[in-house]
Task: inverse folding
């Protein structure tokens, strides 16, 4: 084990978790265990002469993948994290042993980094594997609605109040929208009910267009369609990921800590087979409960426009299938100085020193069920 990785593992023991287990009216239950593999192949673009390709000129070039070691509804077994790297057709010996797991990123998350050694060529492939477990969530609506606004949100959720990439919550369009909705009376309602009203308002004025994943010919995933909350809210139009970003931006503009969650789940393709697909949802923080999950894309199909705020809403707080998703990141692009690969898709890299001659990535995520996970102590 490298000195850098050892130091990072020691630090991990003392840094606050990215998400504490829920309390009070909110609980997590029925943990499921998975082996996750995130793999990417990158090829350079063809030159104007279609028989040739441009080349990478790399030396000590980092490839990074966020890791949520401890989420409100997920937990990665840190000792299982492994990385592998291939340049051309050859595996780079010891690439995983020279990796680093670094802390200090927003929401107390980590970045797993591997480094491409000196390489001149047209293609490389890498993968990161780990074992993780996911919980479902359940919320007591009545008790949640009894919780009050805190005098100050705790330090560990402050990142969820700040603007970030694709979530430009400091733009006037969001503050103005919150004002139009609440007429300046936001804090007269309990924070839980205020959050529900803000989410309903946002969904009712947003049209989801197209699909959220960018596919190359043959069904290869290249990335996700995300233009950001400000651009999407301006037109009321965007992908399902933009809807998540917009809900989070509206909540932050209202002074409620919120964050997106980007993950993966199994779904049936057009041939009836189970395949892993990218999905995003959101969480907002409620003092006395914890991080409350909700899925804006699913909510728009649940006829919530005329539902009482005090009634349970499917996919809001209670998400019984949340344990069938793996939470990968709170960012569409890693929170570090790296280049976005083609389209945002959780990972990133810095193809130094030669720069990126034009990259065509192929992203694949697999999740293999390993049965029941460990229950929380009682």
Result:
């Amino acid at each position: 084990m490298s000195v850098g990785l050892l130091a990072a593992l020691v630090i991990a023991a003392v840094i606050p978790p990215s998400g504490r287990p829920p309390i009070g009216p909110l609980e997590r239950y029925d943990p499921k265990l998975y082996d996750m593999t995130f793999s990417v192949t990158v090829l350079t673009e063809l030159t104007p002469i279609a028989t040739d390709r441009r080349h990478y000129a790399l030396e000590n070039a980092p490839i990074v993948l966020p890791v949520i070691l401890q989420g409100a509804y997920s937990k990665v077994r840190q000792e299982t994290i492994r990385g592998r790297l291939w340049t051309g057709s050859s595996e780079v010996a010891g690439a995983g042993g020279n990796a680093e797991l670094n802390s200090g990123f927003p929401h107390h998350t980590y970045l797993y980094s591997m480094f491409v050694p000196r390489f001149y060529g047209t293609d490389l492939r890498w993968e990161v594997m780990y074992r993780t477990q996911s919980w479902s969530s359940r919320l007591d609506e009545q008790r949640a609605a009894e919780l009050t606004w805190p005098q100050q949100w705790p330090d560990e959720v402050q990142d969820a109040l700040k603007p970030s990439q694709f979530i430009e919550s400091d733009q006037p369009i969001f503050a103005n929208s919150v004002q139009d909705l609440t007429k300046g009376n936001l804090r007269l309602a309990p924070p839980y009910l205020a959050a529900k009203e803000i989410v309903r308002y946002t969904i009712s004025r947003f049209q989801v267009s197209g699909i959220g994943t960018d596919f190359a010919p043959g069904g290869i995933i290249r990335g996700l369609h995300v233009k950001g909350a400000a651009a999407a809210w301006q037109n009321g139009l965007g992908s399902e990921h933009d809807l998540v970003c917009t809900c989070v931006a509206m909540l932050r503009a209202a002074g409620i800590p919120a964050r997106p969650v980007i993950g993966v789940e199994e779904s049936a393709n057009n041939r009836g087979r189970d395949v892993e697909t990218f999905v995003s949802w959101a969480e907002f923080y409620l003092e006395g409960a914890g991080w409350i999950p909700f899925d804006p894309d699913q909510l728009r199909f649940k006829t919530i426009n005329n539902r009482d705020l005090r009634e349970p809403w499917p996919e809001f707080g209670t998400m019984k299938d949340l344990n069938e998703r793996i939470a990968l990141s709170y960012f569409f692009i890693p929170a570090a100085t790296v280049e976005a690969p083609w389209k945002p898709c959780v990972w990133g890299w810095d193809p130094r020193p030669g720069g990126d001659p034009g990259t065509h990535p192929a992203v694949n995520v697999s999740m293999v069920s390993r049965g029941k996970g460990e229950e929380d102590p009682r």
Observations:
- DSSP finds seven helices and 20 strands in the chain.
- The helical segments are 3-12, 141-145, 172-182, 191-204, 229-235, 240-253, 296-299.
- Confidence is low (pLDDT under 50) at residues 1-15.
